[in-house]
Write a structure and sequence with these properties.
Layout lengths: L3 E3 H11 L5 E3 L6 H7 L6 E3 L3 H15 L3 E5 L3 H15 L4 E7 L15 H5 L5 E4 L6 H13 L5 E7 H5 L1 E3 L20 H13 L3 E5 L6 H14 L3 E3 L14 H7 L2 E5 L20 E6 L2 H11 L3 E6 L2 H11 L9 H10 L19 H13 L5 E4 L3 H9 L4 E4 L9 H11 L5 E6 H6 L3 H7 L5 E6 L4 H11 L14 H7 L3 E5 L2 H16 L4 E6 L11
Parallel strand pairs: 2-3, 2-4, 4-5, 5-7, 6-7, 9-10, 9-11, 11-12, 12-13, 14-15, 14-16, 16-17, 17-19, 18-19
Antiparallel strand pairs: 1-8
Helix pairs in contact: 1-2, 1-6, 3-4, 3-16, 8-12, 9-12, 14-15, 14-21
The chain binds thiamine diphosphate.
Thiamine diphosphate binds next to α15, β16, α17 and α19.
């Protein structure tokens, strides 16, 4: 008798073959065959409370580890819930794969249960999106999805899995298991001659800057940028926030780019975050170099900057960065006066911040909170920090220097930090995982504290609770006037008690003296297995802007 396997078993075994990692999932009719196939396999299922959370977790896994994170949801509504979160992963350039169950192929076009055109739905927020067509080749579909997710500019990929294909049995000798070597990413190198030309342009420029996209925001990516900076003498920065050069993480970088006479884009799209490198954000005669994995983005740079684009080349970011480090030695050495000047601006945090104190009894100012937290995040160099939400967390971005950090991406999409912290804990077993967010943001996925408790994946949430969607309230104040701020109020809810009810640890902080003891207790709770929330009553203040 020939052995047979179900499509679902082929999925489970292929996922093992392609490198074991957790599967962030929410169950549903179309994927119960895969849950069944997981029995006796080494698949680790982390079962969440909302499909978007599964995607945020896979996104965080991708960003922290560099390997494709996997989210698995059911078809129709499960898929629809998941798709929105792909936008965050796409703009964070995060490698991940969304596997969605799907109506059976024989139901299609006939009004099948939860039938919807899933691949088309996910296409605008994915690098690639398709529906599997045969059980025998499911392993190849998975390998191809992971290859695309991790190749070139990393990003999310979607694969729909029709339930009849998952249920179908295939004879073992007919199964096309993926040849792993065939699916390894094939990076596009930057030719030495072009690397030499880029290095020569940098050496010749008076005030060059090198800007990287979110794919280099990882610890490894930042280390590569530090090496490029040391080798070329050009200041480097990751542009990972919708605030672009005005992201408070990079201090007064807006003043640096304004002075620049050459901008090297290393896997950084020329887009709204850079105001398309036009005046007044940049000098009107700034010259631009674009090195990008996507030809379309090199072309866009050419279109936006016409003859000011001095070099455009399709190459992958990592090998291109390595080539610049290697070839910089051949270029004329520049003095480091400009680099020092730029670094001073990027490290700038206004002196006045050191003395900021809350003006509102019973509430803390964000600057007080993050000044106090800085020594805590610096205690362990492997600490993972996640910053999410509006105004409060941007103070955290600015005041908490860490090597491993994730923010809510160029899309500025709030809400993913609690699931991201859970996935970060799964990727990092020892160092503290700290998520900073506003109270509006906390509400998106607070039920995932239950997931953290069930799966013993503890972290600490630092919650700036001003009972307001403050970022939007600040827009009303700025654009329409202080007398037209309305409709953005929340309640001073005891989110700490919500977390206790879900099985975690909660702290309420209304005075600065209470902050550090509360955070230490929260860290201890997390170290002993309980996720924790420090609910800090905070003043409603605008995000920091650093200008010199
Ligand atoms: C998914 C998504 N929904 C809505 C927005 C718009 N938005 C940006 S910040 C913000 C308010 C955030 O409020 P909160 O988390 O309480 O942080 P605060 O600004 O009060 O510090 C909103 C609604 C967004 N960027 N992303």
């Amino acid at each position: 008798m020939t052995a047979t396997l179900r499509g679902a078993d082929i999925v489970a075994q292929s996922l093992e073959l392609l490198g074991r990692r957790p599967i962030f999932t929410l169950s549903g009719n179309h994927i119960m065959s895969i849950f069944d196939a997981a029995i006796g396999s080494k698949l680790e299922l982390i079962h969440v409370r909302h499909e978007a959370a599964a995607v945020h977790m896979a996104d965080a896994w991708g960003r922290l580890t560099g390997e494709a994170g996997i989210a698995m949801v059911t078809g129709g509504p499960g898929h629809a819930n998941a798709v929105g979160a792909l936008f965050t992963a796409l703009s964070a350039e995060s490698p991940m794969v969304l596997l969605s169950g799907h109506a059976a192929t024989w139901e299609l076009g006939r009004g099948g249960f939860q039938e919807i055109r899933q691949a088309e739905m996910a296409a605008p927020v994915s690098k690639a999106s398709w529906m599997a067509r045969s059980a025998a080749s499911l392993g190849e579909d998975l390998a191809e999805a992971m290859r695309i997710a991790t190749s070139g500019r990393p990003g999310p990929v979607h694969l729909s899995l029709p339930s009849d294909i998952l249920d179908e049995t295939v004879e073992a000798n007919a199964i096309r298991w993926p040849d792993i070597a065939k699916y390894a990413p094939q990076p596009i190198a930057l030719p030495d001659a072009i690397a030499d030309a880029v290095c020569a342009e940098i050496a010749k420029a008076e005030r060059p800057v090198l800007l990287a996209g979110p794919a280099l925001s990882s610890q490894k990516g930042r280390a590569l940028l530090a090496r490029i900076e040391a080798a070329t003498g050009a200041p480097t920065a990751v542009i990972e926030s919708p605030r672009g050069a005005n992201d408070a993480t990079i201090g007064a970088f807006g003043d640096v780019v304004k002075k620049a006479d050459l901008v090297v884009l290393l896997g950084k799209a020329l887009d709204f975050t850079l105001k398309w490198a036009k005046a007044p954000a940049f000098a009107s005669d700034v010259r631009v170099i674009s090195i990008d994995p996507e030809g379309a983005l090199v072309e866009r740079a050419a279109k936006e900057k016409s003859s000011a684009l001095v070099i455009g080349c399709v190459a992958d970011t990592w090998p291109a960065g390595e080539a610049l480090v290697r070839r910089a030695a051949n270029a004329k050495r520049r003095d480091d006066a400009w680099l020092k000047q730029a670094r001073t601006l990027m490290d700038n945090r206004p002196d006045t911040w050191a003395a900021i104190k809350s003006q509102t009894p019973g509430r803390l100012h964000a600057a007080e909170v993050f000044r106090a937290l800085r020594p805590i995040v610096e205690r362990d160099p492997e600490t993972v920090l996640i910053c999410d939400g509006g105004e409060f967390s941007q103070w955290g971005q600015s005041l908490l220097p860490v090597r491993r950090r994730m923010i809510n991406s160029v899309a500025g999409s709030i809400g993913g930090s609690i699931p991201m912290a859970i996935a970060a804990r799964r990727a990092e077993s020892k160092a503290p995982v700290i998520a900073v967010m506003g109270d509006g943001t906390f509400g998106f996925h607070m039920s995932e504290f239950d997931t953290a408790v069930r799966h013993k994946l503890p972290f600490v949430a630092i919650l700036g609770n001003d009972a307001c969607w403050n970022a939007e309230s600040q827009i009303q104040k700025r654009d329409y006037g202080a007398d037209r701020m309305h409709g953005c109020d929340l309640l001073p809810t005891r989110y700490d008690q919500v977390v206790v009810a879900l099985g975690g640890h909660g702290e309420l902080v209304t005075r600065i003296e209470e902050l550090l003891p509360a955070v230490e207790r929260a860290l201890q709770a997390a170290a002993s297995g309980k996720p924790a929330c420090v609910n800090i009553m905070a003043e409603s203040i605008a995000a920091p802007v650093i200008r010199v």
